[in-house]
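Budget justification note: compute hours in this period were largely spent on complex prediction jobs such as the one shown. Inputs:
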Amino acid sequence: MSEREPGFTPNEMMTIAASRALKNEDVCFVGIGAPSAACNVARLTHAPDITLIYESGTIGTAPQVLPLSIGDGELCDTAVTTVSVPEMFRYWLQGGRISIGFLGAAQLDKFGNINTTVIGDYLHPKTRLPGGGGAPEIATSSKEIYITMAQSKRGMVETIDFYTSFGHGEGGDHRKRLGIETSGPTLLITDLAIWKPDLDTKEFTVVSLHPGVSRAEVQATCGWTVKFTDALEETPAPTALELKTLRDLQARTKAAHAGTGKEKAA
Amino acid sequence: MVKFLPLSEAVAGNLNDGDTVAFEGFTHLIPTAAAHEAIRQGFGELTLIRMTPDLVYDQMIGMGMARKIVFSYLGNPGVGLLRRARDAIENGFPRPIEVEEHSHAGMANAYEAGAAGLPCAMFRGYRGAGLAAVNPNIKTVSCPFTGEVLAAVPAIRPDVTFIHAQKADRKGNVLVEGIIGIQKEAVLAAKRAVVTVEEVVDSFDELHPNLTVLPSWTISAISVVPGGSHPSYTHGYYIRDNAAYLEWDEISADREKFQAWMQANVIEKTAADFAARVEHLRTAA
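Corresponding output:
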């Protein structure tokens, strides 16, 4: 719990702030973890008709519990339709049907480039991470990219070790120069703040601090020199409905995932 | 023609040392029982292909069976890293393995090209991504009509593909439903295909005409293994054992604990042991 703002945690604020960014008419390609929670909170509050798509092929899914993997049966059971994986990536993602690609990140730089592949050298990694999965093409074929992650100096770095997915590259018009026509990262939601890319440089800039968060705290948990917009706002605190929706969802999820083990032990 | 065989015979007759093999399943319908049979029979020098290598490839790599791995997501989905695979890549234990890494779009397109009899796949991909610089099998082609530069990857053509599926009819046609993933393409891209199923039914006459059915003549062998995809799941039969995926993180973290688990749960077991593992996970009929 945040010391100065009892009633909600920084992670809850992050998920809820991220959920607010999604619109009812969005078609959202959902990454697992924090993006999945945010997308489903949006669906359960202000965006009941949002189309959520997971890379396993489930289109228009409405899970009652958050999936542990991108391919839990719950996603298929509640989907409008389920397509094959080649169809998902060819027709739906590459075909330009996705308005928002929602990604998490292990390592992120200030231009929204993401590394989930290796820490250290690619051929001789210090830590071999899972890799990109769908992210390299989600990052370039979705109309816009939202990113959500908890801040840390290890996670938000000046230079990432590997370009798993391309954000704004070295900034400016780098995407255009590579022939990428989509907008790329347009929003970053952390546990402390909301960030948007500068119109020209494309560097992520803090536009809103979450309640009770100081500029110094944002800087202390970020590996690059943070820029703040002149008209800095405060993120509205979670409403009672938002908090209840998120907590109920997480409680149902915890019970469902633990359930398989409990029954086995019985 | 397809043969109905005990799993031990289906694996022995279709897998060889040094083969390029895909045990496919995109979270759903992972052919765990077939992979465990391959582990028991002790194959080696395999090139393992899979979009989402999870527990079964972690196990095969940990047992030293793999020479090379081709993949697009090397994780325990929703849990974290694959610790035996990491040990092989980071420390060369129990042996070094060669890595060929793609994106999901790259692998999906490559399987589709394999099924389509094409030499390569082309798609709009890998733009600005680091993989293109470290994987020599990622190249570019220009569209002859528009000039657009597209990514190209070689087709995937396994010597043998293993998948799990819901059911077969008596003729050996196979039904796959739910999250169908890459199952159809992986079978049609391969020289040989082995399918484990939950059950055999008399006929598919009552099925909806558009359900994914693999005709018998596309399959080399079928083995009936109830529960054969545990801890993955079979839509309509039993749910994913998420707790087992969480437990694997701990088992695989330690080399000795891993070996002990493999001995007790794979080496000393048979395909017939899978049915009991899913009893508590069965969905209400």
